[in-house]
Every structure is written in structure tokens, then in C-alpha cells.
Design brief:
Elements (H helix, E strand, L loop, with lengths): L3 E2 L2 E5 L6 H14 L2 E6 L5 H14 L3 E7 L2 H7 L5 E5 L8 E8 L7 H9 L1
Parallel strand pairs: 3-4, 3-5
Antiparallel strand pairs: 1-2, 2-6, 5-6
Helix pairs in contact: 1-2
């Protein structure tokens, strides 16, 4: 199973998902967006990914904003005040997993084409 799917990016922390991937995702999203809000769920690996995403966003010239720990629908709604939003979560998966959901300004999730663009970058 690939990491990039219709519900964002998910995988095992330390195996599939790590700080380097977070940095690459941040760079990719930052290259196509300006202001980006970043939130996370309570998973212990969340801070690692948030920090990596923000570093990548900054490297790409984007303007990141930390939302802190928020429910996913709150982050999707907050994205309306930014160019897009990134939520660090693996949803219903066990705690050893984590990932990133990407939200458009209108609160919709990135579609397949947008997700493929992030994966390519």
C-alpha cells in the first residue's frame, strides 16, 4: 500500500513516516501555497511531524501558522482563513501510525490530482 492515498498520507512512524518525509511534504505544499495552518491530534509523534512540516514550509517560502492540538474538522474549517491546512493525524489507525491530511481553503480535502502533485514534488 502506498503512503499517499485518498485520505492523505499515512504510515508507520519511524518506518514509513519520519521527519524527512514531513520536511519534503512541507516543501512541496509550501511551493504551491502561501499561508498554511498546521494542526495535530494527540499522538505522541505529532510534534515531530508538525516541526518538520513547518521547517519545509519555511524553506519553500510559505508562511506557516500553528493551530496546536485540534480536532480534524476544526483544522479543515480554519483552512478557510489561509491558503490551505495540514492536519497531522492518522485518523482511526493505531497510535504507532501517523500521517498528514491536506485541506483546501474551502474546507475540502486535497483531491487526487493535488495529492499527486505533492507526491511528485
Amino acid at each position: 500500500m502506498g503512503l499517499f492515498g485518498s485520505s492523505g498520507i499515512r504510515g508507520l512512524i519511524g518506518k514509513d513516516i519520519d521527519a524527512e518525509l514531513g520536511l519534503r511534504i512541507g516543501r512541496a505544499v509550501g511551493s504551491i501555497s502561501g499561508a498554511v495552518v498546521v494542526g495535530k491530534d494527540p499522538r505522541t509523534s505529532g510534534d515531530l511531524l508538525v516541526n518538520a512540516l513547518i521547517a519545509g514550509l519555511i524553506e519553500a517560502g510559505a508562511e506557516p501558522y500553528r493551530a496546536g492540538m485540534v480536532p480534524t474538522p476544526t483544522l479543515a474549517c480554519a483552512a478557510s482563513h489561509f491558503d490551505c491546512g495540514l492536519m497531522v493525524t492518522a485518523s482511526h489507525n493505531p497510535p504507532e501510525y501517523n500521517g498528514v491530511k491536506m485541506w483546501n481553503q474551502d474546507g475540502s480535502a486535497f483531491d487526487g490530482e493535488q495529492t499527486e502533485e505533492v507526491e511528485r514534488l
